[in-house]
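Record now logged underneath.
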Amino acid sequence: MKKLLPVFSLTFIAVSALLFQACTKVADTKDLWQAVVPPVTPINDATCLSGALNGTMLAGKTYNVCGDIFVKAGDTLTIQEGVTINFTGNGTTPVGLGVNGALFCLGTKEKPVLFTYPGVTKTDQLGANPDTDPALKGKWTGIIGGPTCSYMVLKWTRVELGGAAISAAMKSFTGGSSPYPLYFANPAGIFVLEDSWVYGSTDDPFRINGGKISVMRNTFEKCGYTGGEAMNAKAGTIGDFAYNLCVGMATNGPKISNINVAVGFPSSNVRIYNNTIVNCGYRRSAAGRGGSINYEEGAGGLAYNNLIVNCKFGLRVVGNPIADTANLRYGYNWYYADSVSVASQFIPSLSVSTAISQPQETDIPKPSSYLPAGWKTGDTYTAPASIIGANNPQFVNAPVPLPAGLLLRDIAVVGNYNFALKPGSPCIGIGFTGFSPRADVPVNAKYGASEITPPGKDIGCYQINGRGNQH
């Protein structure tokens, strides 16, 4: 397959980035990981934790949290492999973990860490009513990184059923924002989420207001009741979102904005590549929003090699407030739809969305194969029948095409499905690899990413060579 050059100049972006970094050196935290965190003591009380913590939760133990727990500025909470943390509260008031110091959650593939609320029966059967789904109501508050949280690092960690109402004490960490299972708000800090799972939330499962990030090889399932993105990044967030599986988000997979960026920090710029985004956008209550990937309000980055299946909208570049289109590139994304209505929004229409997304001939299907003659950016179009059900990515086991009698919103969890590619999938070997990750966080066993996986040759989060999503 002949490779076409990306829309925007790589050289221009690289030069601009260097100049901008030179102007914002004060905000650089690249070498923050070199700081030495003092040794801390084991946390042995596992029956009723509350209040301030500074220590290590020991491998394999189960801890019960009966009141909000906190990590003060300058303190560190380290969580070893195989730990289970039950946020039971006192039976009436939801509780959570607030971090103004540093958090290192170091699960392993064999022994992941679990944050949860015990005793909940999951309603993941097809066609379950979202209005009564406990996963969308929130049972405990979440892991809330405050304005002085220097590190939040989560590896091989399950975060389930978070996003409940927030206590007055925890509001000091969020500035009064809505609760999120994962929240981070230090523009000078480092956030890492890798090889982990986030299941259920009332709103966004993960919201970040600035910082350097590496979000790689995770699975996001059934998040957001009537709104919520797998990652809602704002306020000068820079980094990589790659090899993630997003299934059944209320709104989008990742959304990038630059609203409320702090003075002296760079604008939001996130590289979104090699993700698989399935059946997203169907619980979004507001019209004209939701679907797959969203750039808006002064945010830039790139989006390549993403596998977008039966999502409400294709990649959406917002025109009002406008994204940073001068520093935004996208293409080589694969779209599949089982209906005319979905295929007619591969390129979102301005009449139903504030999108100004440009067609990219490197996408599959090629826009020239379905856009009508004379089509202009933002125009409404009706997709031809020839592309409905075409370009099946050939997952190992997945609801593609959608089984009769089901709605797209019914497929919201991975369950027994397998979204890896079959050996003969047409998505294999056609990805664009002529770019690099931003790699804004260090590679370090504790203080950074275990690996910043480069762009893959296969479309989506699963790679035939085994380098992508490990779930």
